[in-house]
Write a structure and sequence with these properties.
Layout (H helix, E strand, L loop, with lengths): L4 E5 L2 E6 L1 H32 L2 H12 L19 H9 L18
Antiparallel strand pairs: 1-2
Helix pairs in contact: 1-3, 2-3
Length: 110
């Protein structure tokens, strides 16, 4: 099994690419996406802990209506169906801010 690929032509070798080179390149490219996914999952979990599904739906409808004007059927009201951008909107819009998201009866774990 080959341990690398020669780059160039028979008269002018430019380099050798090994499996480690490819893995390093893919890691460098994918790292930002993996970090972003972790942030997205963390924000989703935070919202889920802080609000009941009905609160999330109400906030989504109020916060996202300007994005989907004329296409209200596209508005996601469940966390599982929302994008990162939609998460940000439901927690940052002043009219429906984060301040009252926590329901006192809902258990918070540390």
């Amino acid at each position: 099994m080959p341990q690398g690929v020669l780059i160039g032509d028979p008269n002018h070798l430019q380099g050798i690419v090994t499996p480690i080179d490819v893995a390093t390149f893919v890691d460098r490219i994918a790292r930002a996406f993996v970090l972003f996914q972790g942030i997205e999952l963390g924000l989703s979990a935070l919202i889920d802990r802080a609000a009941e599904p009905s609160q999330v739906a109400t906030r989504a409808e109020a916060s996202l209506k300007h994005f989907y004007e004329g296409q209200e059927d596209r508005t996601s009201t469940r966390l599982a169906d929302m994008t990162f951008s939609e998460y940000v909107q439901i927690v940052s819009r002043p009219a429906v801010g984060l301040g009252d998201l926590h329901s006192p009866g809902r258990r918070r774990s540390s």
